[in-house]
Specification:
Blueprint: H1 2-17, E1 21-27, E2 32-38, H2 43-54, E3 62-68, E4 71-74, E5 92-98, H3 105-108, H4 118-122, H5 143-148, H6 153-166, H7 172-184, E6 192-197, E7 203-208, E8 212-216, E9 226-229, E10 233-239, E11 242-247, E12 255-259, H8 262-282, H9 288-386, H10 392-462, H11 464-467, H12 469-476, H13 484-520, H14 530-540, H15 545-552, H16 557-566
Parallel strand pairs: 1-5
Antiparallel strand pairs: 1-2, 3-4, 3-5, 6-7, 6-12, 7-8, 8-9, 10-11, 11-12
Helix pairs in contact: 9-10
């Protein structure tokens, strides 16, 4: 009895110790993940788990977003997950997104941030893989952009593919950085907009981003009317729906604005505090953690640079081996064609020799027959001369016959001589034909020898890309022992790469401008939105986001506060 009670007590105690859990689903740009979370976990516990799973160290740019009553909200790090106004049904869904944006991506981003880019999805351009139609099922551009131009899907695919092929061989981190550099120069990059009213009740837009607070007309989200950088702001607070901004200069009065919803005010305050903290952090010396990250990033960049160089060397050797193989194959085909032609020539020579031999034999027989007839004629002439013909008539007839016999003998002698010469010529032609046949056989023997050598070379060359000993030597040299001399050399390599990267980046901007100019003629002006028109006007004036804000902040803070209140 006592044992049963003790057993039940132990089971109850164990049950109480087991933490209660709930399921959380995290949606990223590329995938979804599910975690089992304890009910006592705070936002930081879940956020750290997600960052560890993703292998992300620059965590300060990101957050977990959720939606409640059509309003966007962010998970607070110091508050329990279940204490937020999140849906009660499981799995509880959050979106892992960028919450804050860097001022200068090239300077601030230490770790590579994987984006769902075209480059990363398809890899490097390969004409054997990326053939016409491979983009047919992809949404590479927003429908608004496609509708803005008088271009068919095939025309877009052709230009995008040409642009893709143009940048073959570009490293992944370079592609990511170029993408972010283009994005960060856009007027609406990293800006969160909120509807507000100043103390006069004028409806305005508040823009919160990495640079500060900006005030916009509701119809123009591109060009702010007033800006207050974070280094001019001392404190931000709100009570109910009213925000109070305290300038750094204590002699300047605070200024206020109203927002429509309490939830929105919380979001505004979160974004203001986070952006302000990052703004101030960027202007201080790097923390030990960031210094370590940057050192590791430099080593990683050096390692990748050496890896790229190794791969480039291997690729070059492989391409050279392939070119050599192709040349040998081409030469082999040429030799085969020459062998075929030599064979045909040999056959023709043999046929010609046989015909000449037959003709020479016939000519010799004809010559013998003519010689025999000449001898018979000579005998007949001698016989006629020996015959005694007494009468004049007989004598005259005899003389005529003798003359005819002499002329026949002379003609037959000439014909016999001609036939003899022709026989000699035929014999000479036969000798030449046989000599030609001998040369043809000799050339065929040489070609056969070359073909055997080429085939052996071809089989050994085909193995070059995978069996070259130098590849193993290169691979064995990849163990890194970063000494001072190594680091100096790597620093020089990195500096050289940086210069090359800057040149590539400049070339890329020039190409982008050329592409814009090329398709500008195909733009349908009647389909442009108000924002399109404003952006074009800014671009034609050479106005950018940064120089606009710089001009706006030339005036004193006091005058800008006064201007805001009088809007």
């Amino acid at each position: 009895m006592a044992g049963a009670i003790a057993s039940r007590m132990s089971f109850s105690s164990l049950k109480r110790k087991q933490p209660k859990t709930f399921t959380v689903r995290i949606a990223t740009m590329d995938a979804e993940m599910e975690f089992s979370c304890e009910v006592k976990w705070k936002g930081k516990d879940l956020f750290d788990l997600v960052c560890r799973t993703l292998g992300l160290r620059e965590t300060w740019f990101f957050g977990l977003q959720y939606t409640i009553k059509d309003t966007v909200a962010w998970l607070k790090m110091d508050k329990k997950v279940l204490d937020h106004d999140v849906p009660t049904e499981e799995p509880v869904t959050f979106h892992f997104l960028a919450k804050f944006y860097p001022e200068n991506a090239e300077e601030e981003l230490v770790q590579e941030i994987t984006q769902h880019l075209f480059f990363l999805q398809y890899g490097d351009y390969d004409p054997n893989v990326h053939k016409r139609g491979f983009l047919a099922q992809e949404e590479l551009l927003p429908k608004r952009v496609i509708n803005l131009y008088q271009m068919t899907p095939e025309m877009w695919e052709e230009r995008i593919t040409a642009w893709y092929a143009e940048h073959r061989g570009r490293a992944r981190d370079e592609a990511e950085m170029e993408y972010l550099k283009i994005a960060q120069d856009l007027e609406m990059y990293g800006v969160n907009y909120f509807a507000i009213r100043n103390k006069k009740g004028t409806e305005l837009l508040l823009g919160v981003d990495a640079l500060g607070l900006h005030i916009y007309d509701p119809d123009n989200r591109l060009t702010p009317k007033i800006s207050f950088p974070w280094n001019e702001i001392r404190n931000i607070s709100y009570s109910d729906k009213e925000f109070t901004i305290k300038p750094l200069d204590k002699k300047i009065d605070v200024f206020k604005f109203n927002s429509s919803k309490l939830r929105v005010n919380k979001l505004i305050l979160q974004l203001c505090i986070g952006n302000h903290d990052l703004f101030m952090r960027r202007r201080k010396a790097d923390s030990l953690e960031v210094q370590q990250m940057k050192a590791q990033a430099r080593e990683e960049k050096a390692r990748k640079q050496m890896e790229r160089q190794r791969l480039a060397r291997e690729k070059q050797m492989r391409e050279e081996a392939e070119r050599t193989r192709d040349e040998l194959e081409r030469r082999l085909m040429q030799l085969k064609e020459e062998a075929t032609m030599a064979n045909e020539a040999l056959m023709r020579s043999e046929e010609t020799a046989d015909l000449l031999a037959e003709k020479a034999q016939i000519t010799e027989e004809e010559a013998k027959l003519l010689a025999q007839k000449a001898a018979e004629a000579e005998q007949e002439m001698q016989r006629i001369k020996a015959t005694a013909i007494r009468t004049e008539e007989e004598k005259r007839l005899m003389e005529q016959k003798v003359l005819e016999a002499e002329m026949l003998a002379l003609k037959m002698a000439e014909e016999s001589e001609r036939r003899a010469k022709e026989a000699d010529q035929l014999k000479q032609d036969l000798q030449e034909a046989r000599e030609s046949e001998r040369r043809a056989k000799q050339k065929l023997l040489e070609i056969t020898s070359k073909s055997s050598y080429t085939q052996s070379m071809n089989s050994s060359t085909t193995a070059l890309p995978t069996d070259l000993p130098s590849f193993n030597l290169i691979s064995e040299s990849l163990s890194f022992d970063f000494k001072d001399t190594d680091m100096k050399r790597l620093s020089m390599e990195i500096e050289k790469e940086k210069v090359e990267y800057m040149e590539k980046s400049k070339h890329l901007q020039e190409q982008l401008n050329e592409l814009k100019t090329e398709i500008e003629a195909l733009k349908l002006k009647e389909r442009e939105t108000a924002l399109d028109i404003l952006h074009n006007e800014n671009a034609s004036r050479g106005t950018s986001k940064h120089n606009t804000i710089k001009k706006l902040t030339l005036q004193s803070t006091k005058s800008r506060v006064a201007f805001f209140e009088e809007l």
